[in-house]
Design a protein that fits this description.
single chain; about 220 residues; mainly alpha; 10 helices; about 70% helix
């Protein structure tokens, strides 16, 4: 397949999945604008000022969606559509995790609790949530959520579902800021790691010629 054909395949993929990618691009543009205009402590203090008992409960549990266990229901779900999607999901999750964790260890950035603690600035913390102090950049929960919900958006036909997956991923990312575990720049970068990992692995798996030697790869689990 030529480079031009590859570009057209990706373009058609974006067009077919506009219900996920257009809102995501709006998030990138809006988030990028905010990051340019205000610095990260100002952004975080603004977010930290708005909380309620109901939101405390909601985001305390919403954030759990971004943990690694999410790969299990995603893999099981896509296996009933096409086994090739299983390879895409596992590869994207692995690539996203490796990239994200490597950057975390190299950068070693302070999380909000440590950052504001050094400034003797108090924050509101949701009761019962364990607060971490280091390896803030990028957000692993955000990377995982955007990676796996992007996979679901790519393999499903419903535009409503595609948009819903974006909203859930965004809520997970926001929960990391609401809980004062990450700054906006952390979840912003984490989302990029997750989405790019998914796009690379999905389209690579779809174009792998050697997988065509195994007809089962393009069948759902129930039809094997």
């Amino acid at each position: 397949m030529s480079e031009r054909q590859n570009d057209m395949t990706v373009f058609r993929g974006f067009k077919a999945n506009y219900a996920f990618f257009i809102p995501y691009l709006i998030f990138l543009l809006g988030g990028g604008f905010v990051l340019v205009i205000w610095n990260k402590p100002e952004i975080h203090l603004f977010i930290n000022n708005y909380h309620s008992p109901g939101f405390d409960i909601f985001f305390r549990y919403c954030t759990l969606i971004g943990l690694g266990w999410l790969i299990i229901p995603v893999v099981l779900g896509v296996s009933f559509l096409r086994l090739r999607y299983v390879i895409s999901s596992l590869a994207a999750f692995l690539l996203s995790t490796i990239i994200n964790d490597t950057i975390k260890q190299v950068v070693g950035a302070a999380r909000p609790a440590e950052y504001f603690g050094e400034m003797h600035q108090s924050l509101y913390y949701v009761p019962g949530v364990e607060i971490y102090h280091w390896n803030s950049f990028p957000s692993g929960h955000s990377a995982t959520a955007f990676c796996l919900f992007c996979i679901l958006a790519l393999v499903m036909r419903s535009n409503i579902a595609k948009f819903a997956w974006f909203v859930i991923a965004l809520l997970v990312a926001y929960s990391r800021m609401y809980l004062s575990e990450h700054f906006l720049i952390d979840v912003y970068a984490g989302s990029i790691v997750g989405v790019l990992s998914t796009i690379i692995c999905y389209y690579t798996a779809m174009k792998m010629e050697w997988l065509n030697k195994f007809p089962a790869m393009d069948k759902p689990l129930l039809k094997l």
